Amino acid sequence: MIWSVVNDVLKTIPLRLLNTHTGVLCNRVAQLSHFRDSPQYSQLLSQASTRDGQQLEAWIREMVTAFFQYASLSHKWGDDEPLLCDVEGVSVYDLVGKAGLAKLQKFCLHALKRDCAWAWSDTCCIDKESSAELLEAIGCMFAWYRQSAITIVHLSDVSNSASLVDSIWFKRGWTLQELLAPHRVLFFTQDWSPYMNCESSDHKTNGVVLKELEKATGIGEWHLQNFQPGTVDARSRLQWASTRSTTRAEDIAYSLFGIFDLHLPVLYGESADKALGRLLLEIISQSGDVSILDW
């Protein structure tokens, strides 16, 4: 039963995760090895006989989920981010050189501080040389941010005295789902200070920060706190994205697949118009709402 639950939990999380204790990138085999050697696994084995039925399975799931909980990073990519090839087989805490390494190291330490033994960053935890893995990651991205215990947002262009409203993070296409998908979000400024010096466990529950988020995004408080993917009120969802941009033109459509809970082929090389056309056609097909054509 333990391993059945483990396999079930692992289906919902990224293939590669950084171990925040060691700084080492772990694939699925390494993650399973860490679990097998953990005090939690020993506790499950030694105490399983004291529980039975649904109580036993629920307890196992709680323990396994807690062991594999991870933090996700949301940020604007810089010019020199560490990639998979830079971090494989070494500890990220020992690396120097690339400008983005300091950000990755700070992220892992903040994740560890918040009891997440694992951390996920889109810069180095995806093999972008593998088109199959990259396309799978794009399709799973929304779910991975939603499944994370917390999403840590680094606003590299916001000083301690500035407002997050002016950050370019709110103008990027992919960060829309990175704001809406997670249940818990924490914002950090340039020097990795908590935004507004607020040591909250979740900025989505902070009334002042919520007002700023509404101003920056045009998204109401209810959706910021309780967003559900789907095609309901699709026109508003498209309008949230209308002022955002992506480096690759097609990504403006691909970055919305998770928002609408749609699974469509990712076809890099098609135009942005064709990608958006496929997206709009599928939304209309599922919702019957033709008003989205005027979004």
Automatic annotation (TrEMBL):
Source superkingdom = Eukaryota
Signal peptide positions on this chain = none
Q: What is this protein called?
A: Heterokaryon incompatibility domain-containing protein
Please state every residue range assigned to the domain named Heterokaryon incompatibility: 70-161
